[in-house]
Amino acid sequence: MNDARHELNIQLKKFEKRMPAKLGRFLHWLRQPGAFWVRIPFAVFFILFGLVGFLPLVGFWMVPVGLLLLAEDVPALARPVARLLAWIDRKWPQKPKPPDPQKLSPR
Prior knowledge:
Blueprint: H1 3-18, H2 21-30, H3 36-50, H4 62-70, H5 75-91, H6 101-104
């Protein structure tokens, strides 16, 4: 595995963990090698519908999602998408962890 693919896999795993559970599992399933026949049409769908983002229900947000899916199969996209995901990870605020009840209760 080359460096760009490795970097992409690391960033995608981080991204999956930050998503809602069902969506993260679906993305993980789409990234599996056997899901090639589903991943490519999904990627094309997201990119094409993202280009008409001015319509209701679709949006320009769909283009990066399509590129993310396509990066699994197009090596030239792996590094730019990995860098984009790293940038999003730095900018996306972390959810605060809920307080530990053990530490809150008076002793």
